[in-house]
């Protein structure tokens, strides 16, 4: 049976360092390279910690809950990789929950929190949750960290305002002036992306268009484009709040006989593999979702250990524009 001493010998570290990696503590100082070396040694030796004994000793299960809204959203692919990877490094496991199933009167929250199932909870955009469910989550002593801005508990987030700025500035540099913003809901992320759009338009001396359509799906994008075409001056370009709404915009444009990008340029916020394989391939702002997942897990483990989590906006890497085929310069500006 492999022991922590075996891992320490292979990694060239002390047993205390191995224990610190397993328990997710930060009292023992080590570099990321050292931590990675210990994790690699654990994998090479196929080390399986005695979770039952560990839970009794630490009064922790080693499990965290990640609760997302609409699990089929492809934006979560990189987020999940970051969460699961960071949790594995900490020796923990992840329970994935769908906010769609968490409604007032359901037993999910009670089962989640009342039986010692999890040590902490990550949530994404609690503005989309049932208010009573959010209140119940906050009423329990389990630490909660939001993967978006939150007023009432610790949070870590991505720079959504910057994403809106980048997308809009790119279209402005292509000489577009009639630009509209499509898709999104009432949450903080949408508000920040729309704010970035507004600021760039105003800085260019232009009047921002009103927000068109709400929602995250294909239908929201299609409805938004149809609304945009009813404006006194139809747009030559659109910034789309999310991936699936961008799919809806392309579909509606095709149905209406509008050529993208020759007659309408499209830039989406968030970049997933789907965007590259659409036709035309969609220019998009890539958001640091993988890093968000990792930062969320590490912040939550700090809270679980009784230490503060500094949180805030992830500054590195910044949102990044990925240029493809769905936007082109306006020739008759």
- Give the CATH architecture of the domain at 160-287: 3-Layer(aba) Sandwich
* CATH topology descriptor of the domain at 160-287: Rossmann fold
Strand order of the largest sheet: 6-7-8-9-11
What sort of overall outline do the alpha carbons produce when their principal axes are compared? elongated
The low-confidence runs, each spanning 5 or more residues with pLDDT under 50, are 51-59
Strand content: 5-15%
Q: Determine the mean pLDDT.
A: 86
CATH top level of the domain at 160-287? Alpha Beta
Count the DSSP helices. Answer: 13
Q: Compute the gyration radius: what is it?
A: 23 Å
Distance between the termini: 72 Å
Q: Helices and strands: which structural class?
A: alpha/beta
Largest sheet: 5 strands, mixed
How many beta-strand segments? 11
| Helix-strand pattern | HHHHEHEHEHEEHEHHEHEHEHEE
The level of helicity is 40-55%
Q: In CATH, what is the homologous superfamily of the domain at 160-287? A: Response regulator
How would you characterize this protein structure?
Among the domains are: 4-49, lambda repressor-like DNA-binding domains (434 Repressor (Amino-terminal Domain), Orthogonal Bundle); 160-287, Response regulator (Rossmann fold). Strand 1 (63-68), helix 5 (76-89) and strand 2 (93-98) form a beta-alpha-beta unit. Helix 8 runs parallel beside helix 9 (188-203). The model is unreliable at 51-59 (pLDDT under 50). The chain has a five-stranded mixed β-sheet, sandwiched between helices. By secondary structure, the chain is α/β, with parallel strands linked by helices. It contains 13 helices and eleven strands. The longest helix is centred in the middle third of the chain and has 16 residues, at 188-203. It is elongated and about 70 Å long.
């Amino acid at each position: 049976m492999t022991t922590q001493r075996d891992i320490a010998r292979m990694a060239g570290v002390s047993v205390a360092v191995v224990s610190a990696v397993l328990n997710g503590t930060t009292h023992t100082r080590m570099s990321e390279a050292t931590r990675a070396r210990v994790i690699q040694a654990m994998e090479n030796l196929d080390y399986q910690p005695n979770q039952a004994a560990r839970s009794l000793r630490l009064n922790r299960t080693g499990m965290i809950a990640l609760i997302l809204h609409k699990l089929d959203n492809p934006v979560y692919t990189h987020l999940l990789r970051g969460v699961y990877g960071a949790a594995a490094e900490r020796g923990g496991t992840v329970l994935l929950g769908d906010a769609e199933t968490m409604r007032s009167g359901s037993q999910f929250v009670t089962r989640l929190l009342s039986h010692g199932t999890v040590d902490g909870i990550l949530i994404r955009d609690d503005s989309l949750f049932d208010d009573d469910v959010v209140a119940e989550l906050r009423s329990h002593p389990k630490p909660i960290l939001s993967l978006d801005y939150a007023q009432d508990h610790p949070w870590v987030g991505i720079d959504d305002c910057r994403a809106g700025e980048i997308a809009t500035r790119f279209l402005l540099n292509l000489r577009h002036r009639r630009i509209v913003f499509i898709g999104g809901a009432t949450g903080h992320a949408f508000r920040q992306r729309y704010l970035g759009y507004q600021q760039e338009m105003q800085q260019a001396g232009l009047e921002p268009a009103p927000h068109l359509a709400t929602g995250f799906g294909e239908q929201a994008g299609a409805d938004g484009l149809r609304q945009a075409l009813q404006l006194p001056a139809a747009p030559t370009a659109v910034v789309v709040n999310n991936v699936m709404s961008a799919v809806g915009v392309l579909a509606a444009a095709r149905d209406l006989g509008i050529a993208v990008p020759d007659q309408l340029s499209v830039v989406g916020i968030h970049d997933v593999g789907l965007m590259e394989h659409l036709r035309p391939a969609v220019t998009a702002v890539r958001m640091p979702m993988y890093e968000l997942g990792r930062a969320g897990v590490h912040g939550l483990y700090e809270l679980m250990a009784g230490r503060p989590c500094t949180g805030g906006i992830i500054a590195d890497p910044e949102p990044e524009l990925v240029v493809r085929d769905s936007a082109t310069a306006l020739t008759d500006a």
